[in-house]
Every structure is written in structure tokens, then in C-alpha cells.
Amino acid sequence: MTDKIIERILAAADTPNLLDILTNRLSLSDLQSLLLEVYRRRAASLTPSDILKQYENNRFVVPSQVNPQEQLEFDRLAYSVLPPGFEALELSPVSPLGTNSVVATVNQNKVLSTIRNTEVTADVTNVLALECAKRKRAAKHTRDHEIIKLCASHRVLRTQQVKGPNLFQHFRLLGLCTAGRDTGSYRFEIDALIEHLEFYFRLFEAANHSGFAIADVRVSLTAFDKIRYNALQASVLEKLATQYPQVTFAFDQERETGRGYYDSAGFHIYGRDSSGTEYFLVDGGFTDWTQQLLNNKKERLLISGIGSERFVLCFR
User: CA of 53: how far to CAs of 41, 58, 204, in Å?
Assistant: First the structure.
């Protein structure tokens, strides 16, 4: 379908090599200048009624359905139970062009690209990974084994069509990111994974004491790298199952989602609302993003995130 649309546009422009010119012959800065002028002229032709019509029909500009006071309460709870060492950041609304598609496996068409060679932030953890890599490179190997822990609550926007209750084009996402180096015996991975999981357990407990209602929390862990299965079983699942008997833990080695996106291991967290409906709440796992960004196979990165806006709407 996309190819046919492009073919139609090129035929209408009567310039068969237009796509090659825009893609390969113009620098990004020149392309930006050209598109800025195009959209300046387009905007100049619009009327106030055109703007109102766009506001009524554009799925990207619809206001959030969540009560902002309840959203602020959730963020307050989350920041209050952050593990020691985590730094909370307020991210920019935009990130570099390709943030999601170059180091991760997300199609560029799923993010809102801008004509200023940026894209509207579509995932908190991708940007936090960039910040981790920036800080690590700035250290210039003086602190190779320093662990960087970052957190952000941010409104993200994604362009793929969404349908169903409590699913939106833009929504608030709380993300955690732990970056470090391989220390042997899977020690970094085990410690970071436990820390992330325990954060969500504390968050749910705090939420239950503050007007939310979440029950029957369960964790599904997948070892994409089979070598890590035994370490995760003994050092993560069995340990946490003893400490958190109210939480259900299990392996899901049949899981296919996330393979290729995460490398060694990934996890999901679920919970039930007061009516007994179960929701998928948290997605997390280890990626090779900092390895790619810093060109160093020793780098390790754990990311995780919860759709906080969805949580507020479903569990308030």
C-alpha cells in the first residue's frame, strides 16, 4: 500500500527521481530548510476553521482522558519508592531522528517524525539509553564500572492505529533504565533485574494504600538466552518468591514477543482490578542498545516501563 502511494505521488509530481533527490542528494539540514518553507506556505493558506476541523478530527491531538491530579499522585508515589541511586529526569518532547528505529527494532513509521530532523518521543527508555551512553562516553573510561540509574515519567506518542478501551495515541509512560558493565557471573543482570521488579512491587503496594486497587500481581520471566535460565531461576525467581509470597512468579519460555528486541531476558508484570479483569502492566528486559551506541560488547542495559496513564484509568 505504501509503495503504491509513493508511486502515485511521484507520478503526480512528474519527477520520477524525486524520492532519490530528497533522500540521498540533499543533506539533512537542506532537507529541513526545504520542508520548513513548504509547511510555512501550507500553514499560511489555512483558515481558523481549518484549524478547528483538524483539532476535531486528528487522532494525535485529542486531550488525555486521565485526571491530571490522579496522574500526578501516581508519579508522586513512583518517585517516593524509587530505589537508591536512581535519578529522575524531565525529558524533552522530542528526541533525535531514528532514536527508536536505529538501535531498536521499531519501524520509523510508528513514530511521529518532524521536519526538524527529530521525532516526537515514542518511548522513554530509548531516550534514557541515549542519556546513559552520553554520560558513559563523557566519563572517558575513568569510571568504567559505574552504574547509571535513570527514571522518567513522560507523555509519549505513537502513530500506529490503536483500538480498544484504555488504548491511546499518546499516553504517559514511566520508565526505568539501569546501565552498567559486565561484571561476570551474570551479577549485574541479576542485581538490576531484582531492583526493577522490587520497585514495581513497592509501587503497587503504595498505590493500594493511596486509593488504587490492584490485586493478584504476577510476573512472567523469559530467558531468551537459555544459558541464563538457571541463574534466573535460582537467583531471581526463587529468591523473590520467598520474599513476596503474595506475587506469583513463573517462567514463560514459549514467549515470542520481544525476541530480537530484548536479548538475554525479558519480563512482564500483570495485575487484576477490582472486577477481576487482568491487565498487562509492565514490560522490561535487557537490550544491546548501549553496546551499539558505545561500540562495546561489555556494556549492559536493563529497561522497563509501565503505562502509568493506563494504570490510573484501570485501577483507580
Answer: 19, 8, 41
